[in-house]
Amino acid sequence: MDTTPAPSELVALEQLACDLALEAGRLIVDERPDRLGVAATKSTATDVVTVMDQRSEELLRTRLEQLRPDDGLLGEEGGSRQSRSGITWVVDPIDGTVNYLYQLPAYAVSVAACVGDVSVSGGWRPVVGAVVNPMTDELFHARQGGGAHLRHAGRSAQLSVSNQTDLALSLVGTGFGYDAAKRRKQAALVGELIDQVRDIRRAGSAALDLCSVGAGRLDAYYESGLNAWDQAAGRLVVTEAGGVVVGRSGGAPDADLVLAGSRALVDRLAPVVDARPLG
Ligand code: IPD
């Protein structure tokens, strides 16, 4: 079901996404245990879950059940509920969990309301998104047709992507998955790009990387293997900031590829990235 909510409902959903991201962001900072350990591992021994990932998702799940009982849910830590309204919340309770574990201040809570089928890679799209970095108190948010904004220190600023068109002068973000074989391929692509761009950044949170593109702090970003929760909210921040987000061969972004930036830069980067399947 692909039912875009009416503009007035989008405003309310965006506000809710912001409130939830801020509340979960406070939780993961205020209630972080002194000795935070690894509660579980997922795809590999380095793909970790902490107790705060679980508590943050529990908070988001409980609030959404109370406030939006007909909406669906897809959460990184296993939260899942079928949608009866056509809207599904896609949440990452801590994006950048490894940064969180090491106390590097680049992690986020990401909350998006999406339409379409979130169980199908590329079969859904975000209509509202909020990403908070609780260490910098920055809240990035967007709604379809409403622009992208950054709220910080009591101020709100409208975001727009960078106007850099020269790949050689572009700062490009990327990330790596957890699987060793895939990481080798991802590193090989970085090796190919490194002398074609200004520089490469690997900050450790896909949600914040996408928001950095929306804010013009990165000229472009690409990553292969992102889950829906890593990309949902940040993608909308990019497109509402005037950028584009594509997948392989210019198709819809999905688990295979997310490539974000201004149209001009995405067109320059796409042939290089497309030439090297990373899956
Ligand atoms: C990870 C981060 C990282 C990206 C990985 C993601 P997680 O999410 O977004 O930057 O490179 O692909 O899995 O595991 O910290 O939620």
Explain what you see.
The protein has 279 residues and is of the alpha+beta class. 34% of the residues lie in helices and 25% in strands. It contains seven helices and 15 strands. An eight-stranded mixed beta sheet has the order 4-3-5-6-7-8-9-10. The chain has a five-stranded mixed beta sheet with strand order 12-11-13-15-14, sandwiched between helices. A hairpin with a 4-residue loop joins strand 8 (138-143) and strand 9. The longest helix is centred in the first third of the chain and has 24 residues, at 7-30. The chain is globular, with a radius of gyration of 17 Å. The site of D-MYO-inositol-1-phosphate (IPD) has 15 residues, from strand 5. Residues 76, 92, 95-97, 175-177, 204-206, 223, 225-226, 230 line the site of D-MYO-inositol-1-phosphate.
Any key phrases for this structure?
binds D-MYO-inositol-1-phosphate, single chain, 34% helix, 279 residues, 8-stranded mixed beta sheet, globular, alpha+beta
Return the string of H and E elements: HEEHEEEHEEEEEEHEHEHEEH
Arithmetic mean pLDDT: 95
Each distinct ligand:
D-MYO-inositol-1-phosphate
> Which band does the percent of strand residues land in?
25-35%
Q: Globular, elongated, flat, extended or rod-shaped: what is the shape?
A: globular
Distance between the termini: 28 Å
SS content category: alpha+beta
Number of helices: 7
How do the strands line up in the largest sheet? 4-3-5-6-7-8-9-10
